[in-house]
UniProtKB/TrEMBL annotation:
Compositionally biased residues, Polar residues: 288-301
Top-level taxon of origin: Eukaryota
Organism lineage string: Eukaryota, Metazoa, Chordata, Craniata, Vertebrata
Function: 6-O-sulfation enzyme which catalyzes the transfer of sulfate from 3'-phosphoadenosine 5'-phosphosulfate (PAPS) to position 6 of the N-sulfoglucosamine residue (GlcNS) of heparan sulfate.
Name of the featured protein: Heparan-sulfate 6-O-sulfotransferase
Keyword check for Lyase: no
Gene3D superfamilies (UniProt xref): P-loop containing nucleotide triphosphate hydrolases
PANTHER family for the chain: HEPARAN SULFATE 6-O-SULFOTRANSFERASE 3 (PTHR12812), HEPARAN-SULFATE 6-O-SULFOTRANSFERASE 3 (PTHR12812:SF3)
Single Gene Ontology MF annotation: heparan sulfate 6-sulfotransferase activity
Length: 301
């Protein structure tokens, strides 16, 4: 009789525990779903990181031209700055009609209000510093200096940025920055519509002139990116060396304390290697070597 009562009590306890677990899981799921809704965001439980990707300015410009040539538009973009969109006088259209499909490269370059010009700087900078899209608020030289400085500062302070021309290094830096791993290695694909455009030297120089702020930003970004990459690689190597040093010290302490070593195989090797040997191999393979930068494969316009 006592045994039956004890078994019944155990069953009740198990049921209660299961119910509690189910309730907890449901609550967690509800919170996660709720946090995805616009009007129900748990701001105290979320972290936001600003990240971006930059691209060679000439390649990016040509890519946008081909995109617009196929009929793409930015009509839905509000271009909000200081709480308002630009006026028609501040940002006149480059074309008449629904889109700019079929536009030639010359026509694309000849529009002075084309937002493709220096797009990367404009999208990274704080436009309110220069009066938004009001070009009469200051002279062009001062405006450009402020925009470029703002873009560089914002880029430097972002949690992460990568470069299209350095896919493997970008993957490595992203994984190290956020302690995440991609399931596959990034690949460098240079066969793009922009890469297939046959440019004359004068046209290439003209595109660089139209995007000279982006050119300066990209050179700055590339230099900083490669510095960060080298620093991160050196730090990783130091961590590996430190871990090996700690393992050797631990093995020495074990030996001094007279603790037995792992048995050796008849062939003379250690069974499974020294303690920690497997982890050393794992550490070296933890972040695959991704030093290939594909620079030689990138089309230089």
């Amino acid at each position: 009789m006592m045994m039956m009562m004890m078994m019944m009590m155990m069953v009740v306890v198990v049921v209660v525990v299961v119910v509690v677990v189910v309730v907890v899981v449901v609550v967690v799921v509800v919170v996660m779903i709720c946090s995805q809704l616009a009007n129900c965001v748990c701001f105290g439980c979320r972290n936001f990181y600003y990240i971006t990707m930059l691209r060679d300015p000439v390649s990016r410009y040509l890519s946008e031209w081909k995109h617009v040539q196929r009929g793409a538009t930015w009509k839905t973009a509000l271009h909000m700055c200081d709480g308002r969109s630009p006026t028609q006088d501040e940002l006149p259209n480059c074309y008449i009609g629904d889109d700019w499909s079929g536009v030639t490269l010359t026509e694309f370059m000849n529009c002075p209000s084309n937002l493709a010009n220096n797009r990367q700087v404009r999208m990274l900078a704080d436009l309110s510093l220069v009066g938004c899209y009001n070009l009469s608020s200051m002279n062009e030289s001062q405006r450009n200096h402020i925009l470029l400085s703002s873009a560089m500062s914002n880029l430097k302070n972002m949690a992460f940025y990568g470069l299209t021309e350095f896919q493997r290094k970008t993957q490595y830096m992203f994984e190290r920055t956020f302690s995440l791993r991609f399931i596959a290695a990034f690949t460098q694909i240079n066969s793009t519509r922009a890469a297939n455009v046959d440019l004359s030297e004068p046209v290439r120089r003209r595109i660089e002139e139209l995007n000279y702020l982006d050119v300066q930003l990209y050179e700055y970004a590339k230099d900083l990116f490669l510095q960060r990459f080298q620093f991160t690689r050196q730090k990783e190597h130091q961590e590996v060396r430190l871990k090996r040093r700690e393992e050797r010290r631990w093995l020495k302490e074990q030996k001094e304390q007279g603790r037995p070593w792992p048995p050796k195989h008849k062939g003379g090797g250690n069974a499974g290697g020294r303690r920690g040997g497997g982890s050393e191999k794992g550490t070296e393979g933890e972040f695959p070597t991704t030093t290939e930068d594909y620079t030689s494969q990138v089309a230089r316009w």
